[in-house]
Amino acid sequence: MDFKKFLPWIIVIGLVLILGLWYINVKNGAIEVDQAVKKEWGNVETSYQRRNDLIGNLVNTVKGAADFEKSTLTAVIEARAKATAVKIDPTNVTPEQLAAFNSAQSGLSSSLSRLLVSVEQYPTLKANENFLKLQDELASTENQILTARTRFNESVQAYNNYVLKMPRNIILSEYKEKAAFKAVEGAEKPVEVKF
Q1: pLDDT tens readout for residues 51-90
Q2: Does 188 map to a domain?
Q3: Helices vs strands, H then E, count in the chain
Q4: pLDDT for the residue numbered 195
Q5: 87 three-state secondary structure
Q6: Which of 9, 25, 38, 84 is 20 to 30 Å from the Cα of 63, by its Cα?
Q7: In this structure, is the dihedral angle defined by the CA atoms of residues 134, 136, 142 and 144, taken in order, positive or negative?
Q8: CB of 80 within 8 A of CB of 108?
Q9: What global pTM score does this model have?
Q10: What confidence tens digit (pLDDT) does each residue in 170-189 have?
Q11: Is residue 50 part of a domain?
Q12: Coil, helix or strand for 117?
């Protein structure tokens, strides 16, 4: 039997097999990094949900102070409703979606800060054990949100690096670049603290 006449076919079949396995590996890798982004986005949403739940409890605790400013409470409640209304699809995260999400969350943070500052005028509320516990949990949750957002950005970076690099970007043309969290406009300015 003469192997020389089959050698070109063996080489072609070998190359097709190698390219086919590489193609499968690239597609499976894209699925892995895409799923990682979705998982990390779920963690971001979970952290924000925890904050929203705590804010609801905080507002109810503050409502117990009969003479507390209703306008401040109303602002927090409205900002919380806006923040929970903004939804993002992790399969197609765009800079515009993240900007809207950031804006809503920033509005909530701002009104919550005003609420916590105005609490200083109510010594009985400041001494309330439930209020103090909720305030501590809220601070802890803000750290969880920061961690979740950082991990989300890291997973978006890994995803973007994977799908945008040559030659994978040719095979993965249906996978689009995803947006990462950016600082809210004006965050680079130092906060002015007044006493």
Answers
A1: 888 888 777 777 766 455 667 777 777 888 888 877 887 7
A2: no
A3: 6, 0
A4: 37
A5: coil
A6: 84
A7: negative
A8: yes
A9: 0.73
A10: 989 899 999 888 876 665 56
A11: yes
A12: helix
Structural tokens at position 26: 């690239």
Torsion 117-115-44-101 (CA) sign:
negative
What is the Cβ-side half-sphere exposure of residue 167, based on CA atoms within 13 angstroms? Answer: 4
What does the alpha-carbon distance between residue 153 and residue 181 come to, in Å, rounded to a whole number?
6
Q: What does the alpha-carbon distance between residue 132 and residue 3 come to, in Å, rounded to a whole number?
A: 83
Count the Cβ atoms, other than its own, within 10 Å of residue 172.
19
CATH at 48: 1.20.120
Q: Tokens at residue 58, please?
A: 């905080």
CB contact burial 45-76 (16+ within 10 A = b; e otherwise): bebbebbbebbeebbebbeebeebeeebbebb
Q: Does residue 69 fall inside a structural domain? A: yes
Helices marked H in 64-172: 70-85, 95-118, 123-127, 129-164, 168-171
Half-sphere exposure in the Cβ direction for 67 (13 Å, CA): 4
Give dist(CA 137, CA 47) in Å, integer.
12
Q: Kindly state the tokens that stand for 111.
A: 């009104």
Task: Quote the domain boundaries for residue 49.
Answer: 37-171
* Tokens representing residue 90 in the block: 């992790």
Residue 94, domain member (yes or no):
yes
> Residue 116 to residues 15, 17, 79, 167: CA-CA distances in angstroms?
66, 64, 15, 53
What length does the chain have?
195
**pLDDT, position 150:** 93
